[in-house]
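Technical note accompanying the year-one report. For the benefit of new consortium partners, we illustrate the data format agreed upon in the data management plan: each record pairs a sequence with a structure-token string. No post-processing was applied to the example shown here.
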Amino acid sequence: MSPNLAQLHPYPFQKLRQLFADIAPNASLKPINLSIGEPKHPTPQLIKDALVANFDGLSAYPATQGSEALRSAISRWAERRYGISLNPATEVLPVNGSREALFAFAQTIIDASADSKPVILSPNPFYQIYEGAALLANAEPYYVNCTAANRFQPDWDAVPSDVWARTQLVFVCSPGNPTGAVASIKDWERLFALSDQYGFVIASDECYSEIYFGADKPLGGLEAAAKLGRDFKNLVMFSSLSKRSNVPGLRSGFVAGDAQLMAQFLLYRTYHGCAMSPTVQAASAVAWDDEQHVEDNRRQYAAKFETVTPRLQAVLDVTLPDASFYLWAKVPGDDADFAKRLHQQEHLTVLPGSFLAREAHGLNPGAGYIRIALVAPQEECLEAADRIVRFVQSL
């Protein structure tokens, strides 16, 4: 058995179940769960119709590289969304959701035979797959704290040069999970300069890119490179239909960027056995080619944030995020105790911020925060906000 398995941490939701194990929530209230980032808006009908119309695809083995139709649809979307040109044959690869691809990409990139222990940098707080991917690739995770003092962005200049020298891969999450913060062009410029200096690969996780609230669309990694007059060397982006199109069960996303890296990732995936079903590919192409359902989805989230955020601001330190469907709220006292008592008294589930981060450089940057996922219908989200206000006022 791989000894690296023993290093894996429990997932946040496993810790949450343990936290609630010895309490009984208020049975007089309907349960509301805002802890999990699972989209709850209805799946668009055009995607359902495309699945049904392409059931014949179930009778064929899929190609790992995916169909030309899907790769072309993704390229068209990237050009509309970011103003970038992607070669569908060499710079785009469909994947079964971004989570699987983020993990597999680390296994492809990391050279564990290096003279010194390889490092994978991760924002902190973070999506836990980054850490698991590092540990199972026999690399050392290094956590770069994201705090309010630094706009919830990683402070790359705080990383020691000896760590950079061992770094082979950097995970970026923008818009961020759980903070919703978006990296600026200056943030990208600094990271690109470090990549040029030390030679590491950048994996940009952008699965929340289509949920934003103003006219300014979140800047993407490949887009930032193009704006700075760079090519895509040592840079790939990960995107997904799950949040954009409300199809988390479809398990459909893509990776795009540096053609040399993509060729090696395709080779890895050929052996990994993770090709996307032709039926799912056909429905995915339809989804990437349509923006109307995405605009409708964005309006629904905006309406929830516009009504819920002001209510919570009366009792908590919380602001509208740059993007994503999370509120990152500072709470009085211990975040785990807050979540536990809230669940008991108000039958409402949120996620303690400390469960999404690690103790690093003298602090856990998630401590004292809760993550609230506004994925439920608007009425439930408003009811949840009222319960949180009532709970805080009772403290």
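Partners are asked to follow this layout when depositing records. The chain is about 40% helix and 15% strand.
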